[in-house]
Amino acid sequence: MGEQLHPTPYAEVNAVLHDFLASIQTVPGHERGNKQMNMALWAVQGLLALVFLLVGGMKAFLPLTTVKKTMRSLHDVPAALVRCIGVSELLGAIGLIVPTVTGIQPWLTVAAAVGLVVVMTSAAVFHASRREFPNIGTNVVLVLLAAFVVLGRWKLAPL
Question: What global pTM score does this model have?
Answer without folding.
Answer: 0.75
